[in-house]
Amino acid sequence: MKDICILVGGKAGEGVRASGEVIGRALNKAGYYVYIRDDYPSLIEGGHNFSQVHASVEETFSQRKEIDLIGAFDERTVFEHRDEFKSDSILVVNSNKVEVDSELREEVKDVVGLPISDWRKEVGGPEIIENTGFAAAITSLISLDPDYLNEVFRQEYGDKAGINISLAEKTIGECKDRCKELFELDEVDEGGKALLSGNQSILLGAVSAGLDFYVAYPMTPATSILHFAAQNQEELGLDVMQPENEIAVINIALGASFAGKKSMVATSGGGYDLMQETISLAGMSETPILLIEAQRPGPSTGVPTYTSQADLKYVLEAGHGEFPHIVIAPGDVRQAFYLTGKALNHAWRYQTPVTVLVDKHLSESLKNTEIDPDKIEETEPKKLPKEQNNRLEHNKETYNRYFLTEDGVSPLKFPGNDVIVKNSSYEHLENGLTTEKPIEVEKMQEKRLKKTQKIKKQLRNEQRVWSKETGSDTSVITWGSTKGAVIEATKEIEDPISVIQPLYMWPFPIKELKNKLSNKKTVISVEANSTAQLTSLIKEKTEINIDNTILKYNSRPFYPKELAKQIMEVI
Amino acid sequence: MDEFDTSATNTWCPGCGNFAILRSFKDVLNNLNKEEVKKEDIAITTGIGCHGKIFDYLDVSGFYSIHGRAAATATGIKIGNPDLEVISFEGDGDAYNEGISHLVHAARRNIDITVLVHDNKIYALTTGQFTPTTPIGYKGKSTPKGNIEPPLNPIEFMIASKASFVARGFAGDRKHLKNLIHKSIKHKGFSIINILQPTVAFQNTWKYFRERVYKLQETKHDPKNKIQAIKKSKENEQKIPIGIFYKKQRKTYQQAINEQTTNKKQNIHKVIENLK
């Protein structure tokens, strides 16, 4: 078979997510393309968590709902996902904990009951490692070489891997004999791709562009950036800080940027709300700052651990007053890596706030891809002409932080380098001192406008729209993480329809979209919000009306098959 | 003309306590200069209000921040470049209302910055509303029948927040204030001086404070004694002590970080390899 959909489920605290990740990592090592989505409610222990692992010989951008192989840690998992089982599904349960009714046994191809708790007691490990037993059972049922699994254990658990390996050996030995038929995935060459989440990718992209300082307050779904940064702080050469609240986060980050450190903050909608006043400060004081907004369903607390794309228009209007604010929305881990690198560079090139807008589905889902830090170049901020710099350093001239230039971007220097640098939230003169004179106010507003124009002009050279053109006169337009399900959905549709995904939300790729949309007869927009925000942005910027919208706002991501059906209904 | 002057025109009200704070600070900068702290190695942050104008009157690097956030901005600058001497000027509204959380946590983590609070017990620039340090009964535009909220005791509060240097100054005693500011900058760790700053336009308290202030250093007060310091902080009606209430040397935020991160050497390829 070309691909397989695996689901492991159980209670929070049982290591469900880790189990899914171990399975995914073993498949990644074997060379398969992997996509993992984790679903968990907002609680610490209990409830129902599950991890969907989609592995394929071809690149996959989404989880799937139809399950081939299920690992049920508890009875609730069987009950919750019963609709997703198929007649050829195999169900693996811990027979010490789960009983399967005869009716269900009829519905699926096979139910493999394994006394995983007994085996775990035999090898003498803590209860949590039963998740390892499931990972071993699942990988053995798809005939994966156990070496890949053991390698993952050694990588993830280091010195403690032994106990996991023992339980896996025991499980694998017993498992195959108890199963009627195994799955056989088509063979592939060994991989070499990194399997990572959108959040990990974001941080690595920023580090590749020279990130020095990461500051954040915990908020799902951005929190795992903080964890990844803290865990790898030394090897990423980062300062990492968790201050008292999001207002402190962004003001501390801005202070550090002023001192010359490339800084990044990340949060979700609520935290971004708190940062608003300082985004405006960054615009006024022309202090570079990179923000990550990982959306979750709102308004307000909303549905904290699930996904949504409802903050687009809000983020575009962030902060009071008029100043340039670049907004970029990657749609997969690879785009997240390269575009976050670019985003940090933009912030420092144009000395203005830049936001990377993602969502839970991209932030926390894992996908394997090739990323190369060396392909991201680090932008140095605009320098003073050498002679002028010399005069400055010999105290013969003062440094004008807001020196008026043709393109509005001033040469940037930092305090502590023999210059006086005055950054200000007030309207200011070129030297940074306060002014309220109309002519000076106008001059500075025009300076910021010039930067806006410069950004619009220069970013025309960037790839601001991703698309998969098939020559069809039907196209789906989408943005952010929804791109994944759209790509997978198009694989389900016989007509090869095109997919268009704007990457830059500001400056908006007006011309590119007009070009791409002009020759299409049918355009369908797909978004995870209730008001079709991208669709209305396109209307506002390009005057193109998109009549067909497929919207989902139940806090769960799109699934390829259901989406394909909806697209087919439109066509 | 002083080397720390700028071309900006001073717009504080004649007779305002802010002038004395500015003068004292410049004197400190001149002293620091003699001690080989270069002018360029100073960075200030300011909040918003009358005090914030000091940004324009000092030829040193700085970030004119927004209301309440100057301590957070200062924290970021210090982390960004630990070699800078970072001083944050704030008003009583900035420090104790809008941005009180930043003050508490900056103190607790002992980040090596100095906070100078221009405490005039009023929002002056917005024409005289009560702040957290305004006495009960004060009649202003937002409290025509008198302020009903009991004031905060900044000294007691900052000691409780684990600040490692807590002092009170008075704009009417420049020599004493200058000495205090110098010591607070030299202190390794978080330091704060609550400066009594008469504001002639709304509450002319020059006389009130002159009659009441006395110097802690002239008493037997021991700044290492926290209990005594808190006791002293409650003395603020008939007699008002000025000087260092509490001072304790402890590990700074930066020192704690340096102890933890010993092997900072970038190897992003290794991190990516671990994800393969």
Automatic annotation (TrEMBL), chain A:
Q: Which InterPro entries match?
A: 2-oxoacid/accept_OxRdtase_asu, Pyruvate:ferred/Flavod_OxRd, Pyrv/ketoisovalerate_OxRed_cat, Pyrv_Fd/Flavodoxin_OxRdtase_N, Pyrv_flavodox_OxRed_cen, THDP-binding, Transketo_C/PFOR_II
Its domain of life reads: Archaea
Instruction: Name the UniProt key words of this record, in alphabetical order.
Output: Oxidoreductase
- Molecular function (Gene Ontology), one example: oxidoreductase activity, acting on the aldehyde or oxo group of donors
Domain Pyruvate flavodoxin/ferredoxin oxidoreductase pyrimidine binding: residue ranges: 205-437
| Name of the protein in its database record | 2-oxoacid:acceptor oxidoreductase, alpha subunit
* Xref: SUPFAM superfamilies: Pyruvate-ferredoxin oxidoreductase, PFOR, domain III, Thiamin diphosphate-binding fold (THDP-binding), TK C-terminal domain-like
Q: Which GO terms describe its biological process?
A: organic acid metabolic process; response to oxidative stress; sulfur compound biosynthetic process
Q: What residue stretches are annotated with the Pyruvate/ketoisovalerate oxidoreductase catalytic domain? A: 12-165
Automatic annotation (TrEMBL), chain B:
For this chain's UniProt record, which GO biological process terms are given?
A: cellular respiration; organic acid metabolic process; sulfur compound biosynthetic process
Q: Where is the Thiamine pyrophosphate enzyme TPP-binding domain?
A: 48-195
Domain (Pyruvate ferredoxin oxidoreductase beta subunit C-terminal) ranges: 204-259
Q: Listed GO molecular functions?
A: iron-sulfur cluster binding; metal ion binding; oxidoreductase activity, acting on the aldehyde or oxo group of donors, iron-sulfur protein as acceptor; thiamine pyrophosphate binding
Alphabetized InterPro entries for the sequence: 2-oxoacid:Fd_oxidoreductase (IPR051457), OFOB (IPR011896), PFO_beta_C (IPR032686), THDP-binding (IPR029061), TPP_enzyme_TPP-bd (IPR011766)
* Cofactor(s) required, per the database record: Mg(2+); [4Fe-4S] cluster; thiamine diphosphate
Record keywords, A-Z: Iron, Iron-sulfur, Magnesium, Metal-binding, Oxidoreductase, Thiamine pyrophosphate
Q: Which CDD domains match?
A: TPP_OGFOR
Q: What is this protein called?
A: 2-oxoacid:acceptor oxidoreductase, beta subunit
